[in-house]
Design goal:
Length: 185
């Protein structure tokens, strides 16, 4: 299927790229079909693009990148809704807020998006832990992580310039994030 987005132009979306979020995201319950878009810009940020409205898109980032000890404790009901037989078949992403001053970028750690990589379904869950914020400032940590990656890449590859390539992400190529924990664990 060819889909024209408001942010990324035209994308080709196959079945391997589709994600269903039956309840939608908080504040957007009417949008239930999405895909992940990699803008090819080496920021590690992926974009959750609605396949029902080309203007609806959310910036996502794995929370372990900027908060290594992060874990999402899901209830038995949430595990059932996500059809997660094995918690190691999931990926967890925080929704980002990116203001004009990017140094004030924040991540919603309280309500991550959990994706069942096998069944291609997802849910935004509200975690019961009080330690997580909906506006966790994380720009410094992300910048430090990106600087480390860039330095490693330069030492391996040299200074080769790479042209960004925007593409939909096949769900089956995403590695499990290993951040989901069951309440029964």
């Amino acid at each position: 299927m060819i889909f024209k987005t408001g942010r990324f132009g035209q994308l080709t979306i196959g079945e391997a790229e589709k994600i269903v979020i039956p309840q939608g995201l908080l504040g957007f319950p009417e949008y239930t079909e999405f895909c992940l878009v990699d803008p090819g810009d080496e920021t590690l940020i992926l974009w959750l693009q609605s396949l029902q409205n080309p203007e609806i898109v959310f910036a996502l980032l794995e929370p372990k990148i900027f908060k290594p000890e992060y874990s999402a404790r899901l209830s038995a009901a949430e595990l059932r809704e996500l059809k997660l037989d094995n918690i190691n078949q999931s990926a967890v992403y925080s929704i980002l807020t990116i203001p004009e001053d990017v140094t004030q970028m924040s991540a919603n750690l309280k309500a991550p998006v959990v994706i069942n990589l096998k069944a291609q379904i997802a849910r935004q869950v509200v975690l019961q832990e009080n330690e997580y914020s909906i506006k966790h400032l994380m720009f410094r940590e992300l910048r430090a992580h990106l600087a480390t990656i860039a330095a490693q890449k330069r030492s391996v590859e040299g200074e080769a310039e790479v042209t960004p390539h925007v593409s939909a992400v096949s769900i089956h190529t995403i590695p499990p994030s290993l951040t989901v924990k069951s309440l029964q664990a």
